[in-house]
Design brief:
Layout: H1 3-16, H2 22-29, H3 39-50, H4 58-61, H5 66-73, H6 83-91
Helix pairs in contact: 3-5
């Protein structure tokens, strides 16, 4: 995954939720409320937020694989993101985390 796409994801999260805390954003992303984010939850969220068909979504068209984001931010290697991993991922580029 390129750093540019990683940063685009972070900016998109903040654009959708500019005044929300990272914990509030995490709770919204975690659709099944099990305390973990999966690649499917992230993919579905971004397609829903853009209001586009999956084929028209900018991340899908760019060939972005949300599994790559999970791998980049997943520090314990379980294939999903805890809140702490999510917050660290956002903060890695100085974005988010309030």
């Amino acid at each position: 995954m390129t750093d540019l796409l990683n940063l685009d994801i972070q900016k998109k999260i903040l654009a959708y939720h500019g005044n929300y805390s990272s914990s509030e954003i995490y709770r919204e992303l975690d659709k099944d409320q099990n305390g973990y984010l999966t690649a499917d939850e992230l993919h579905n969220y971004f397609v829903e937020q853009d209001g586009e068909s999956p084929e028209e979504n900018e991340f899908v068209k760019a060939g972005f694989d949300f599994n790559d984001l999970i791998k980049a931010w997943d520090t314990n290697g379980d294939g999903r993101l805890t809140y702490t991993e999510f917050q660290r991922g956002l903060n890695a580029y100085g974005v988010g985390g309030h």
